[in-house]
Amino acid sequence: MTSPNKTRNEMMRALQEADFAVYDLLLYLDTHPDDEKALAMYQDLVRRAQDAKRAYEQAYGPVTADAARGTREWTWIKSPWPWD
Amino acid sequence: MWNYQKKLQYPIKIKNTNPKLAKYIMSQYGGPDGELGASLRYLSQRFSMPDDVTKGILNDVGTEELAHLEMVGTIIHQLTRDLTPEEADKKGFGDYYVDHNIAVYPASAAGVPFTAAYVQSKADVIADLTEDLAADATIL
Predict the structure, then answer these.
(1) How far, CA to CA in Å, does B31 sit from each of B2, B27, B39, B104, B109?
(2) What number is the average pLDDT over the span B107-128?
(3) Has residue A1 been placed in a domain?
(4) Contact between A83 and B73 using a beta-carbon 8 Å cutoff
(5) What are the tens digits of pLDDT across the range A33-63?
(6) Which top CATH class is B19-136?
(7) What are phi and psi for residue B62, nearest 5 degrees?
(8) B107 phi and psi angles, rounded to 5 deg
């Protein structure tokens, strides 16, 4: 889980892990849409991923442009970009 | 439509310059069975899929291939970003460097530019999914 002392890499890693699990389960559900256990797991993982995203964004800036809430500058374009 | 997420699907942090490796990996970017071909293959085929399961899976796998494309591009970028012209010449990267410098360009390891001829899309679910198996069978 997230804590304020975690580094940028650690918080990004937590988000990447959660999102990876969410997307893998999404692909599974595409071909198994009636699997109730998987559906419940999907809801849990989405919540975990949303928490990880919010925690990262509060500390280090937007992951999606809608989270760029600065009023004095456009933080979306600030480095690092994912390939840097 | 798509919304960009400012992150990689999996972390990539390469410190060493290695143009020879970059050239091999380039085929996974713009080669015949690379991620660009995979994403265009799935995202084109999805339009003529007959039911919700096949529409859904091709839409979502095709989307994920774009994330793979970004990771492979990142690997090439990080392997070549500090490359000097002398090193490019010495390490077998000169033929690429002369046209593209340290840019990431969709081509195969042998330098053949990406072409949509790598991809098939036939409005026949069996034909299209069989093509997907062939293209993705050995390379993910």
Answers:
(1) 24, 4, 12, 13, 7
(2) 97
(3) no
(4) yes
(5) 999 999 999 999 999 999 999 999 999 999 9
(6) mainly alpha
(7) -60, -40
(8) -145, 165
Domain that residue A30 falls in: 8-77
Q: Inform me whether the pLDDT recorded for B139 exceeds 80.
A: no
Residues of B in contact with A13 (CB under 8 A): 11
In a domain, A20, yes or no: yes
Domain residue ranges of chain B, discontinuous segments joined by +: 19-136
ipTM above 0.95, yes or no: no
Residues of chain B contacting A20 with CB distance shorter than 8 Å: 9-10
Are B5 and A76 contacting, i.e. CB atoms less than 8 angstroms apart? Answer: no
Q: Is B138 on the interface with A (CB under 8 A)?
A: no
Q: Is the pLDDT of residue A69 over 90?
A: no
Residue reference for tokens 């090193």: B87
**B61–chain A Cβ distance below 8 A for any pair:** yes
* Distance between first and last Cα of chain B: 24
Nearest to A83 by CA among B103, B38, B40, B139: B103
**Domains contained in chain A, number:** 1
Tell me if A41 is assigned to some domain.
Answer: yes
- Looking at the DSSP assignment, which residues form a beta bridge with residue B113? B107
